[in-house]
Design goal:
449 residues; mainly alpha; Hydantoin permease; 0% strand; binds tryptophan
């Protein structure tokens, strides 16, 4: 067997795992969805789904991956050879990786473009009609859309090729501290604005009138998306954890840190939105239309716009690394392809799938399935369907199929950690709480019950 390239230190594990969790989910999805769905009410439901469904699934994935030391698909074959069909979780996971990356690399492409365009000043204006025209122009231009997306894909591919410790770990170790620094700076600046109180009220005072079954499903989908669970990313990263890493504690830390980033992003965005009279319901455009306009109005605003998009570029990089690693690890381990070949194949395939998302606002704008463009379809299909389903089956596998004794020894590092209570609590969550919650929210959200 090949010697596996794994994460080398506790800090490296944390940086890579947190790097996976923190991403466009925090600064693009979280504020947009919170703004659209009633602010704090959405936040509460999102929090509950994170604790009751996202976190247990995350621990389960990391545990299974470390035990099997295998990619998202092979893991099930190694841990439970009696029944091949569990491998479907991994197979769907690899498919999901491409679907998520297809739209994710496009949004990341816009972020990278905005770093560049905010430095040159071409997207800066205090007038929201000007900033929305600038954004519309970017996304409606097929050449630019494809250019920035491919640039991002190749950039991430270059880091992946360098390997798990020398590529992923090394990069995220440098990027994560920078990310926190920038975010705190922007947050402080935003809190000094006159609209700060109004922004914070919106974020922290619940209004449950907007909450429907579909909204609850969206909140749960966000919980999975945020923690990068439900499709094997955490299985793959778990397979790179050292044997002495405390998995439940790592997962908890990542969850808390990730939530902090989302809240800081909300604290950075909403006060500014209210101060300058924008609407929090701008949705996905919030980041690209509102932010440049809002921040341009502040003294030294340009610096903050640049910083904001640099933050986005950093955050999205760590996340994309973890998603791309799923198919690369699979091709590498299962078919014995070199890392270079595995990455090259993934990059080419991704460019093909991804371009259908990139062209969703231009060439392919009229091509819709179920009333959605490819971009929206990939997002909806993964967050609201495939991730929750993956999470459901993962919790069943970890809680019921793999066996309680194995779970106990895996999570206590063969009894060397004094965490009996934590593990018992996890077992309860993964056996009963997570699967029930997931399936009820899923069926209800899709109006099947
Ligand atoms: N968690 C990342 C974010 O919020 C995105 C992400 C990375 C992801 N890996 C994933 C989402 C795996 C779903 C599955 O931006």
């Amino acid at each position: 067997m090949m010697k596996r390239d794994i994460f080398t230190s506790g800090f490296g594990v944390l940086a890579a795992t947190l790097g996976s969790a923190v991403g466009l989910g925090n600064i693009w999805k979280f504020p947009a969805l919170t703004g659209l769905n009633g602010g704090a009410a959405f936040l509460v439901i999102y929090l509950l789904s994170t604790l009751m469904a996202g976190l247990p699934v995350m621990i389960a994935e990391l545990m299974l991956g470390r035990r099997s030391r295998s990619d998202a698909l092979t893991t099930f074959r190694v841990l439970h050879p009696q029944r091949e069909s569990w491998g479907l979780i991994g197979a769907v996971g690899v498919l999901s990786a491409f679907l998520i990356l297809a739209f994710y690399t496009e949004v990341a492409g816009w972020v990278f473009a905005y770093v560049f365009k905010s430095v040159t000043g071409s997207i800066l204006s205090t007038d929201p009609t000007v900033t929305s025209a600038a954004f519309a122009k970017l996304i409606a231009d097929p050449v630019q859309s494809i250019f920035w997306q491919f640039l991002v894909i190749i950039f991430v591919g270059c880091i992946i090729v360098a390997g798990v410790s020398k590529g992923i770990e090394k990069t995220t170790k440098r990027l994560m501290p920078m990310l926190f620094l920038i975010l705190v700076m922007i947050g402080i600046r935003s809190l000094m604005l006159p609209g700060a109180a109004e922004g914070l009220t919106f974020l922290f005072r619940p209004d449950f009138s907007k909450v429907t079954g579909a909204v609850v499903l969206t909140a749960m989908g966000l919980a999975f998306f945020k923690l990068s669970v439900g499709m094997g990313t955490m299985i793959t990263y778990g397979s790179y954890f050292t044997e002495d890493q405390d998995i439940p504690m790592t997962a908890l830390r990542v969850m808390v840190a990730d939530l902090t980033v989302s809240l800081l992003a909300g604290i950075a965005i909403f006060p500014a939105v209210f101060t300058y009279g924008f609407k929090p319901e701008a949705g996905p455009a919030l980041l690209f239309i509102t932010i440049p306009a809002v921040f341009s109005q502040m003294p030294f605003g340009t610096i903050f716009v640049v910083l904001f998009f640099v933050l986005g570029a950093i955050a999205s990089t760590g996340a994309m690394l973890s998603i791309m690693e799923v198919p690369v690890a699979y091709l590498h381990q299962r078919f014995g392809l070199s890392r270079f070949k595995a990455t090259a194949m993934t990059v080419v395939l991704l460019a093909l799938v991804g371009s259908t998302a990139a062209l969703s606002n231009s060439t392919l704008a009229g091509f819709k399935l179920f009333g959605m463009t490819m971009f929206d379809l990939y997002d909806f299909l993964t967050s609201n369907l495939l991730l929750p389903l993956g999470g459901f089956f993962l919790s069943l596998f970890a809680g019921w199929v793999w066996g309680e004794k194995k779970v106990r020894s895996a999570l206590s590092n063969e009894g060397t950690l004094a965490n009996r209570t934590v593990v018992s609590f996890f077992l309860f969550q993964v056996k009963y709480v997570a699967p029930v919650i997931i399936i009820v929210i899923l069926l209800r959200g899709l109006k099947l019950i």
